[in-house]
Amino acid sequence: MRISTFWYCVKEGIKNICRNIWFSLASVATISACIFLFCLFFSIVANIQHVVDNVEGTIGITVFFDENLSEDEIKRIGSEIGRREEVSEVQFTSAEEAWESMKNDYFSGHEELAEGFADDNPLAGSASYQVFLHDITTQDQVVAYLQQLGGVREVNYSNSAAAGLSSFNAVIGILSLVIIGVLLAVSVFLISNTINVAASFRKRENEIMRYIGATDYMIRAPFVVEGIIMGLMGAGIPLVGMYYLYMRSVGYLTTKFQILSRIFQFLPLGDIFPYMAVVAVLLGLGIGFFASFFTIRKHLKV
Amino acid sequence: MIEITNVCKTYDTGNKALRNINITIEDGEFVFIIGRSGSGKSTLLKMLLKEVEPTSGKIVVNDMNLGKMPRRYVPKYRRMLGVVFQDFRLLKDKNVYENVAFAQRVIGASTRKIKERVPNMLQMVGLSAKYKYYPQQLSGGEQQRVAIARALINRPEVLLADEPTGNLDHDNAIEIMRLLDLINQKGTTVIVVTHSNEIVNMMQKRVITMDRGCIIGDEEGGFIHED
User: Fold this and answer.
1) How far apart are CA A232 and CA B34, in angstroms?
2) Which of A127, A278, B36, B213 pairs as cysteine with B19 (C-beta 3.0–4.6 A)?
3) Which neighbouring-strand residues pair with A133?
């Protein structure tokens, strides 16, 4: 395609937008709403996932063994557990290490009280393994496996925080997909409508183009350009809004609710925005391109 | 050369628009097609434009069989043709220059070529001084000149004119016919569909007369009596 032809198509696409400015604005507004919601859900889901990932890294399953088991036997079982694909890491804590840790936690400043147990470790037989998982949703499965292992006395685990966050994230994900899906359909419908109006405005022009020998591609191009411009505008507006909203919201929440920052680490804007921008632009481009491309097809018939 | 052989056209409504039409038009000919409304003139023109397909028969234009032409070749074929309509079909939001340049632009011609050809074409049709005018600022005859310039800018081998003088007064009609004659003298095949016996008699060219889908006359320089 010649550069002059390319610019001609761009110019005609812009003219189409200006000719039906209200229809075009309605389409841009709907795409903006759709992409804004997408960005909002994207931020929420990404942040919750970030928290879940952090929590998953700290929450482990504790495995205690029968008292009569030797340390070698315990370590053999430990290495067997560590080989499972769901397991990211295993940490061994001997009875002595467990007692040292307890002393530090409970007898700090009153060491003389712990002296009485100097030769008699009250936690003897409490050697344990901390098992960390790649994905917290596999916890139940791993716990069931650990409980049926020979030599295992007790398996302690927490089912609350991470699992709760995971399901909340899944719900948010599904909800956002549904809402975005509906808005996508509305956007496509509105763009299609706008293109139809533009095509009826240009009916005579298209007719003349066909008689002159313009290709389908040449007739279609200004409408596709129109759709793409509307799609890109529809993506650009919410991205600018989201950039400032995210920056302000995170700043506000972390300063006003400092307690929140201890349990909830927000993703920095630089980490989240590039991905969000790429997906939003592709979404806008896709909506604009496909809606216009398929709508104008019916106007090409000779 | 245009060869129309045993062409029939029956529309879905059952209307038989053309019945076994046979016409041969040589390169560089000037041909009038005349007939009453509903005689099939426009259907024939639409077939040459590949806008309507014949029910049976064969149309060959410059060795291209239109019946076997895939859809993707139609734009390329149409660039061989120039079309002029009774109602001019100019774009109201474009001036004279832009209307003519439009025909070049949509086939992807370079800006350099457009700038070179359009002024020449406007000079040929006598509208150089009015290149900035919009269609509504021009007379009917001038608008038809713009339409002719637009039809010719892509240097077609055949010019099809559907009632080109239908909306014009006598003087303008004669001017337009002189212009078409000039174009024909430069080598372009010209096919004019018209109602006007006066124009046909004045031009003294080949006349094909149609009636109810059939050809009832094909004469060189034929004289037709006014109704």
Assistant:
1) 54
2) B213
3) A87
**Is B107 near chain A, with CB under 8 Å?**
yes
Does A302 have pLDDT greater than 60? no
Nearest-CA distance B74 → chain A (Å) = 7
Mean pLDDT, chain A, as a whole number? Answer: 83
SS3 of residue B3 by DSSP: strand
Distance CA B137, CA B99 (A): 14
The pLDDT, as a whole number, for residue B8 is: 95
Name the most confidently modeled range: A63-77, A203-217, A267-281.
A267-281
Give the closest of A1, A214, A302 to B106, CB-based. A214
Asked if B203 and B32 touch (Cβ cutoff 8 Å), the reply is yes
* Residues of B whose CB is below 8 A from A209: 106
H or E element, residue B149:
helix B140-152
Tell me which chain B residues have a C-beta less than 8 angstroms from the C-beta of A213.
75-81, 107, 154
For residue B150, the chain A residue with the least C-alpha distance is A212
> What ipTM does this complex have?
0.81
> In terms of C-beta distances under 8 Å and separation of at least 24 residues, what long-range contacts does A37-41 make, across chains too?
A37/A176, A37/A179, A37/A180, A37/A183, A38/A176, A38/A180, A38/A279, A38/A280, A38/A283, A39/A238, A39/A239, A39/A242, A39/A276, A39/A280, A40/A242, A41/A172, A41/A173, A41/A175, A41/A176, A41/A179, A41/A180
Q: Rounded to 5 degrees, what are φ and ψ at A91?
A: -125, 125
Please, which residues have CB within 8 angstroms of residue A195's CB and are 6 or more apart in sequence? A223, A226, A227, A291, A292, A295, A296
> Contact at 8 Å (CB) between B172 and B86?
no
B173 neighbors B163 (Cβ within 8 angstroms): no
Two tokens, residue B60: 């060959």
Q: How many CA atoms lie within 13 A of B135 on its CB side?
A: 18
Report pTM.
0.69
Q: Which residues of A162-188 are buried (b: 16+ CB within 10 A; e: fewer)?
A: bbebbeebeeeeeebeeebeebbeebb
- One DSSP character per residue, A172-221 reads HHHHHHHHHHHHHHHHHHHHHHHHHHHHHHTHHHHHHHHHHT--HHHHHH
Task: Give φ, ψ of B26 to 5 degrees.
Answer: -80, 160
| Closest by Cα among A45, A9, A4 to A176 | A45
Average pLDDT, chain B: 91
DSSP A97-165: HHHHHHHHHHSTT-HHHHHTTTTS-TTTT--EEEEEES-GGGHHHHHHHHHTSTTEEEEE---SHHHHH
CA A32, CA A20: separation in Å to the nearest integer?
18
For residue range A208-236, list pLDDT tens digits in order. Answer: 888 888 888 888 888 899 999 999 999 99
